[in-house]
Prior knowledge:
By secondary structure, the chain is mainly β. It contains one helix and nine strands; from the N terminus they run αβββββββββ. It has one helix at residues 2-8, and strands spanning 12-19, 27-33, 41-48, 54-61, 65-71, 74-80, 85-91, 103-104, 106-109. The N and C termini lie far apart (36 Å).
Amino acid sequence: MLLFLLWGKVQAQVTISGKAKGYEGKELVCTRYLDYMSFELNELGRTTIDKNGAFSLTVPLMHTTQVQLHIGGAQGLMYADPFGNYSIIVNKPDSSQKNAYRQNIRIDFDTLPTYDIN
């Protein structure tokens, strides 16, 4: 019984890796909302994008969750599954986008399983 209770509290590791050309040397932060009433963010992890634009980040998740990827003042959204392994390309914001609060970045996926939520 104790093993069952401990198993229920184990968080899976999700790996998000890829390329972010134009963001070399910047910090990428992965967050999720604690709740959708207050929109309070919980930081899941962070990493620095290397000089070639590559990054890899492993974060803990218990269930499928919408996560936000922040680089500077820009933000992109994706869904992550427990034990997922995502290879993505982070694109710079569209120069025609005018938003006083934040810039949105587009996230492209190298490959996705057929029934992935993204």
